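Regression test attached.
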Amino acid sequence: MAERIIEATVNGRPVRRLVKAHSRLIDFLRGDLQLTGTKEGCGAGECGTCSVFVDGKLMKSCLLPVARAEGADIETVEGLNGGNVLGERTALQKAFHKMGASQCGYCIPGMVMAGTALLREAPEADREEIKERIGGNICRCTGYQKIIDAVELARDVLNGAVAANVLDNDEEEESFIGSSVRRIDAPAKVTGALKYAGDMVMPHMLHMQVLRSPHAHARIVGIDLSEAEKLPGVVGIITADDVPGKDGFGVFVHDQPVMARGKVRHVGEAVAAVAAEDPETAKEAVRRIRVDYEELPAVFDVDAAKAPGAPVLHDYAPDNLVKHIPIRKGDVAAGFAEADIVIEETFRTQPVEHAYLEPEAGLAYVDADGTVTVVSPSQNITHHRHFLSDILALPINKVRMIMSPVGGGFGGKEDMLYQGMLAIMAMKTGRPVRLTFTREESITVSAKRHPAHVRYKMGLTREGRITASEIRIENDGGAYGCSTEGVMRKMAILGAGPYDIANLRMDTYGYYTNNTSSGAFRTFGAMQGEFATEIMLDMAAERLGLDAFAIRRLNGLKDGGVTHTKQTLGSVSLTRVLDAAHQGSGWENGTAAPRGDLRRDLGRAETRAPCTLGARFTERRKAAVSGKVRGRGMAASWYGIARTATIDRAGAWVELDDGGTAKVLTGVTEIGEGILTVLAQVAAEELGIRPEDITLGDNDTARSPEAAHAGATRQTYMIANAVAIACRDARSRFDAEIAAYWDVDPELIEAANGEIRARGTNLKMTMGEAVAVCKGPRGVVPVGSGSYTAPHTGLDPVDGSGKPWQAYVYGCQVAEVEVDTVTGEVQVLGIWAAHDVGRAINPQGVEGQIEGGIVQGLGQALMEDYQQVEGHAVTQGFDKYILPTSLDVPHITSLIVEDPDPLSPLGAKGIGEPSLLPTAPAIINAIHDAVGIRLTALPATPVKVLAALSEKRNQQAASVAAE
Amino acid sequence: MLTCDTYLTPESLKEALDALAGAGDDVRLLAGATDTFPWARQGRAGDVTGDRHVATLIDISRVPELAGYAIAEGRVRLGANVVFQDFLEDQALMRHLPNMPYCAVWFADDQIRRQATLAGNLANASPAADGTPALLVLNGEMELARPGGDAPVTRTVPVQDFITGPGKTVLHADEIVVAISCDSLAGYGGSFEKVGQRRSLVISVACASCCVKPSEDGRHFEDIRLALGGVGPLPIRLDDVEAALIGQPITMDNIREASALSALRVASRSRRDYREEVVRGFTERAVIDALADCGAMPDTVLEEVVHG
């Protein structure tokens, strides 16, 4: 293999290296120079996580041959401030920190580089030009709004329009709870210092590659490893035969082997894995493995899967059914008999890829005490440890899961996938092993949002009251069970929407097929059902001449209302949320028939201008606007907080530490949403110190108590409460000692901002002094522990009744769109998003979750679509799997509603998932308002929109001709 | 992953041509290289790493003869290594090739545009290539060189003849695109329309480009050139629409009537085809935006466009 010497200047220093001639600049930077602030999100120039300056010009280092570095001046994110968390950061890096522009952080080094490039080249760029110039960098978490805000702030500081000290100073609020405390992990993200799993190296580390199935359904007749084993540099090869324990895992049903056992059930399923001294050798060895397959008949959709005599994927499920969840309430037949109108429609939602920018990666090793340790971006270290203990046949305390920083999850890193292979390889070779997926691997083998086929029948009175709903949702669960059962359950409980429906029949079904598995994805099934419900309500409102808000107010659950599972609720914030969205968006009341440009509530200040490219070189010329029509739509939503229909719990340990600081330990899993900052705020408030005094020990099953997974919008609710309880426990012990020292009643002790005092006296000291007193004279280490429980109950298997959650949240969004009737393109110009979060512990973080959820919802509404042909992914890269860019996103107005939860010590509920729920139906309803077409199958691509417009024109022409 | 046995970086056109001639069949030229690395990844699962091995890679980015551009006698000669970003940043190019800034701003993103060459975009011959309709409008010609004794031998091929089908061109195995020459249309208004599924990093479902020159009184079409891309295996120059408009008054009726002809050009495709639907209105837009670009949109047209 050809080699060449590269001499270049990198971050101001001369470097000289012998490299493989075929390498790319990114390989040189990340591999040879260990400059891992440059990330590889896609390897195909489609995401921008690898942006670096080459001779002053920003380029994508995954598209550049390393030869282009010869003699060049390269600047990476580490060049901006030395990649040093403690170093002085640039104005833009500070602005990202202040504005809350980073979430998972994986796109952030590239995004900082894109922002830096634009501020160097176009220091006066306006907002439109900023969006255009960062258009090559994808962010999956933030929805771009706070990133663009940060660039604007840095621009203004650099231009002298805003004082520079704004970047360093924040206004202090009275309490840390409810205050937009800056994210504690942002400095490491904006500097590129944070190491994700794929950035980590260990001495003597091996590189792993996986052989994957080319068939959707086939029996494995034989595997011949002999040629691979002969290759120098190969250290270990594993197949299903190497699994030491019980091979089978899954959240609900343990149907998934670590590697294909006897047969493969989907394209891309792992069949064997090789560990070698370098990735190239591992790849070559994978190529030399010979697998003999006997192809089996396969099923690629639900209809085929449930047909009599269909090929069976799993012996335990001869009908290919993963799970059916029924909900029964009232008498549906009687309800339809009462109805004045009955509406029937079918809906289809598509499989959606999580598209976190960090592809799956992991590092496994065996600790000195024999503990098998897996470091990976896992959303559920608790569960994965349980699985691995069985798979590896090890006592549970000899398995250790450490969550590496998660570069985006959204549910996609909740279902376990590759961690078993890593652990087995580390055990077999005795050496550290690292595996990093390519983007294509990630898309092809990771679980998707369930594609759903919804058959819906709704009866209503003339006044608009729902008398009955009958809903049947069939879902393609793919090859393995993953989270399907839970998704079916949540879909069944929530799918009919936050409405008081006396008579309901709801059935959700998940089926096995030979497609890519479906699994956990933000909203966990609620989206598909609620989407259909919100379109149905709009159709009903149109038929009955009602306003879209009015029909939802009429049917919406109220305080003390009864849910579809016959749970009696306490406070229901839906009406408040509807009011907030109605007022916030300035909604003009009217029937849900297409009003389009006749509306008088269009084009408010909270919308953006439609994107016409070329902001940088042309004054806004009078571009053609004929054929572009605007409209508005809305949708409401609800969601349950924490694990569904089962008891949920989380724990935490706290120690008030020297100097008036504190350690907080909990197995929380930060996936970019900002939970660590929330916990620091909560602990600081409870302990009477400051967030920066908190040291968080997290995400390690061997070093912190169980707090379970990042999912179900549960972390603030469950874990922040556990931390609060642990802090109160530590404080009660601590306060008692200080009270004894001062000889006052412990009830008088209060602490805030690093100072402790006895109320009504002049006794006070710093918390640092107080800890010294507690430990010294009193001889007590002030520690505490806390566990928080949410006592949910399971559903009745026949009628689905039960109390799946104790806390519910409600949402409502209004979307304003522009539909181009010439091209079929839809641009979303504004979204007003009202969401009840219980109590916003960090409002900036809440906004970040709302903005990010909306843009994911927009992606599903308009462009995203994971497509397979006979089980083969055809959208396996970001060139074909289309994600929203900075130029596709609306202006988002967050309207935070707070209806505190009485059962939660903090009052907070959650926002992570529910922000996505109303977006797609609001957009689809807005398209109807604009141009009168009713799309029922997502996504609303230009092709579909134009076809529907054309059909509508033909129908109109036909009806005119008929007259 | 792309691997190779030999990676060559010729320093002159002759060296590059000799390298190509001597490399055998398993060879690939790298100019911008923005398509090559993604191409080397396009495997499906089972071969998800999608590796490609090419015996010889010839990196022509440092060949001086391919750099820069020259403007003379009403033509612009663009070296093959001119990148898309140049049409957004070089004032002379923006003036002489008025549709190119609009084409470039729709192409990929700022970073890829700094690397991706216009010549490479054409040589790849994707039906969705943005550069092709823009160059048809400019009467572009490809200048191809092959080895020949002391000095390379060149031939010139018009853009419409250069591309023969998806991924296919008349380029011989021993030839390199050295330049693209095209008309200088300084004083024209230019436009580029594109529709895809988003507005950055977007691949064309359909695109159109126009350059227009109004008469001195601003009332008539003195010259107009129009082309479509993405609507079929080959790009289409809309000479019938052009002929229908040249010399005619600039009115919305005339633009609409002439643009209707464009739909016939894709009529061979199935009736319900999206592209057929989109082309007519798209052609209208291309004309109107090009008129707007040179400030020649009469008020009557403007009125109808804004409120119509």
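Expected vs. actual: identical. The mean pLDDT of chain B is 90.
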